[in-house]
């Protein structure tokens, strides 16, 4: 039987560096999804003091929405997030979240990879990873041509992290500036 208790989701959008204009739209999107789906509740905040052992227990998922900057979390806040994840909490890191906390190994391990750079936005093709097509996240996702984006490059190739399952990758023959050769991961999950 499915649970009738809604999931509590914290959408965290603090930045200390560049700030994407799309953050408010992202927050609205999560509120709309929660309202339409009726199986999760959203709290949106930029208050990192919520990242304590006691505060995080009220959430099932933390969405790190475009958190660019090196001082997003203090060491105790990051430790609380790490422990919360080890105890079953889930993280969804979106776009600029990979550019946060550069050089912080704990943060990089939590989100899977660290942003290096991206070329100017241009249209390209997103390919589903064949080995991941049965993953539940992929049920609503397929390939897409003409997707205009900033094709992220990472400091280390995400496939080098054996704890990650690649879900989507960019076709580097359809965009320029990729640094990962023929294999350009874009979306992944922990296994």
Can you offer a commentary on this structure?
The protein has helices at 23-37, 53-56, 75-86, 105-111; strands at residues 7-12, 40-45, 61-65, 90-94, 115-117, 122-128, 144-149, 153-154, 164-170, 184-190. With 191 residues, the protein is of the alpha/beta class. The chain has 2 domains: 7-111, 3-Layer(aba) Sandwich (Rossmann fold), CATH 3.40.50; 117-190, no CATH class. It has a 4-stranded parallel beta sheet, with helices on one face. The longest helix is centred in the N-terminal third of the chain and has 15 residues, at 23-37. The model has no long low-confidence stretch (mean pLDDT 93).
- DSSP E strands, number: 10
Which topology of the largest domain does CATH recognise? Rossmann fold
Task: Return the CATH architecture of the largest domain.
Answer: 3-Layer(aba) Sandwich
Shape: globular
- What assembly state would you assign to the polypeptide chains in this entry? single chain
Report strand order across the widest sheet: 2-1-3-4
Query: What is the CATH domain class of the largest domain?
Result: Alpha Beta
**What's the helical proportion of residues?**
10-25%
What are the segments in which pLDDT stays under 50 over at least 5 consecutive residues? Answer: none
């Amino acid at each position: 039987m499915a649970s009738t208790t809604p999931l509590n989701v914290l959408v965290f959008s603090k930045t200390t560096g560049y700030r994407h204009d799309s953050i408010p739209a992202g927050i609205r999107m999560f509120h709309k999804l929660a309202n339409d789906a009726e199986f999760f509740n959203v709290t949106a905040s930029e208050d990192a003091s919520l990242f304590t052992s006691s505060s995080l227990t009220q959430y099932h998922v933390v969405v790190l929405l475009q958190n660019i900057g090196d001082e997003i979390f203090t060491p105790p806040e990051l430790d609380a997030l790490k422990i919360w994840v080890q105890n079953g909490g889930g993280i969804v890191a979106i776009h600029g979240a990979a550019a946060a906390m550069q050089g912080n190994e704990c943060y990089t391990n939590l989100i899977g990879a660290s942003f290096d750079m991206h070329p100017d936005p241009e249209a390209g093709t997103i390919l589903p990873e064949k080995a991941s097509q049965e993953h539940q996240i992929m049920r609503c996702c397929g390939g897409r041509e003409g997707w205009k984006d900033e094709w992220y490059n990472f400091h280390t190739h995400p496939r080098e992290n054996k704890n990650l399952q690649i879900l989507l990758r960019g076709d580097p023959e359809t965009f320029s500036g990729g640094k990962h050769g023929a294999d350009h991961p874009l979306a992944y999950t922990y296994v």
